[in-house]
């Protein structure tokens, strides 16, 4: 057998193995999500089953397609250029896909983001200025069909400067602004990125507890039910813990797709 044929067969076998791993990883994560939800002790959020958002940052659209074919529908991306490219590439072969934008959103890229086919939710509204920009451009977007766009308010519960999010002190004001001033947006919940360095042997992640407290304050101030205020917290390293505490939306990437590969920094 020639060297060229051997290399070809190795690539085929490697691809088949990779494809199988993606499906197996997805199944494993879904099982872990269900198991964690069953361990909840809080009465809150029991009517809202945790939503799994598969984050394909830096991964090719073909990987998204495989996971979609295995039954997954919610996918998230951190970068505007990447979500725009993938959403257009997959709009015909993944007609029921639901895209979540979960990264830092700059005002000058809002219009580009809103052009994404099947954009379902922006999880990272962190200022009144950004909310106003999304509200204004959504109604003029070619994707607008008369329905407000679902958004979450991102809260910086760890007070880390390198992380986006409104401060806990100003979170209620931002939620009120979205609900009252942005008629083209629909507030669905709160989101945070917890500290990566928390030692879980010492107890629950305080950042997650802070987000749950913010949720309670939102419910009380605006007379909303628990189901009206979703909680997006938990990623590959801590999604099970987050679900047990009450998360209704977890963002899992590398546990399903493998380690990320950066050729050049996306935007």
Give a topology summary.
Elements: H1 3-38, E1 51-55, H2 61-69, E2 74-77, H3 80-89, E3 98-101, H4 110-114, E4 119-125, H5 128-140, E5 149-154, H6 171-181, E6 185-191, H7 206-222, E7 230-232, H8 239-245, E8 249-252, H9 254-257
Parallel strand pairs: 1-2, 1-8, 2-3, 3-4, 4-5, 5-6, 6-7
Describe the protein in words.
The chain has about 270 residues and is α/β, with parallel strands linked by helices. The protein has nine helices and eight strands. The chain has helices at about 5-40, 60-70, 80-90, 110-115, 130-140, 170-180, 205-220, 240-245, 255, and strands at about 50-55, 75, 100, 120-125, 150-155, 185-190, 230, 250. An eight-stranded parallel β-sheet has the order 7-6-5-4-3-2-1-8. Helix 5 (about 130-140) links the parallel strand 4 (about 120-125) and strand 5 (about 150-155). The longest helix is centred in the N-terminal third of the chain and has 36 residues, at about 5-40. The chain starts with a helix and ends in a 10-residue tail after the last helix. Residues about 5-15 have low confidence and may be disordered.
Question: Which key features would you list for this structure?
Answer:
267 residues; single chain; eight-stranded parallel sheet; globular
Q: How are the strands of the largest sheet arranged?
A: 7-6-5-4-3-2-1-8
Report how far apart the termini are. 45 Å
In terms of quaternary structure, what is this?
A: single chain
Give unreliable regions as ranges.
5-17
What is the rounded Rg?
Answer: 19 Å
The H/E string reads HEHEHEHEHEHEHEHEH
Shape: globular
Helix content: 40-55%
Largest sheet: 8 strands, parallel
| Fraction of residues in β-strands | 5-15%
Strand pairing plus helix content: what structural class? alpha/beta
Mean pLDDT: 90
Tell how many strands the DSSP assignment holds: 8
């Amino acid at each position: 057998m020639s060297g060229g044929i051997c290399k070809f067969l190795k690539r085929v076998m490697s691809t088949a193995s990779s494809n199988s791993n993606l499906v197996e990883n997805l199944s494993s994560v879904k099982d872990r999500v269900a198991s964690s939800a069953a361990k909840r002790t809080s009465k809150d959020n029991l009517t809202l089953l945790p939503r799994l958002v598969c984050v394909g940052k830096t991964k090719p659209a073909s990987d998204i397609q495989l996971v979609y074919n295995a039954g997954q529908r919610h996918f998230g991306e951190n970068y505007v250029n990447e979500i725009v490219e993938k959403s257009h590439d997959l709009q015909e072969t993944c007609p029921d896909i639901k895209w979540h934008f979960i990264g830092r959103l700059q005002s000058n890229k809002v219009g580009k983001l809103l052009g994404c086919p099947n954009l379902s939710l922006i999880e990272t509204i962190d200022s009144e200025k950004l909310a106003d920009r999304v509200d204004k451009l959504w109604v003029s977007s070619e994707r607008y069909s008369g329905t407000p766009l679902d958004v979450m308010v991102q809260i910086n519960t760890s007070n880390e400067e390198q992380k986006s999010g409104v401060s806990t002190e100003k979170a209620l004001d931002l939620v009120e602004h979205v609900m009252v001033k942005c008629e083209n947006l629909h507030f669905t919940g709160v989101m945070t990125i917890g500290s990566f360095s928390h030692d879980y042997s010492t107890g629950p992640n305080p950042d997650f507890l802070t987000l749950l407290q913010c949720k309670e304050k939102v419910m009380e101030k605006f007379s909303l039910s628990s189901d009206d205020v979703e909680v997006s917290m938990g990623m590959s390293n801590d999604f099970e813990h987050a679900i047990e505490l009450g998360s209704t939306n977890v963002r899992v990437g590398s546990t399903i797709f493998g380690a990320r590969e950066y050729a050049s920094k996306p935007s």
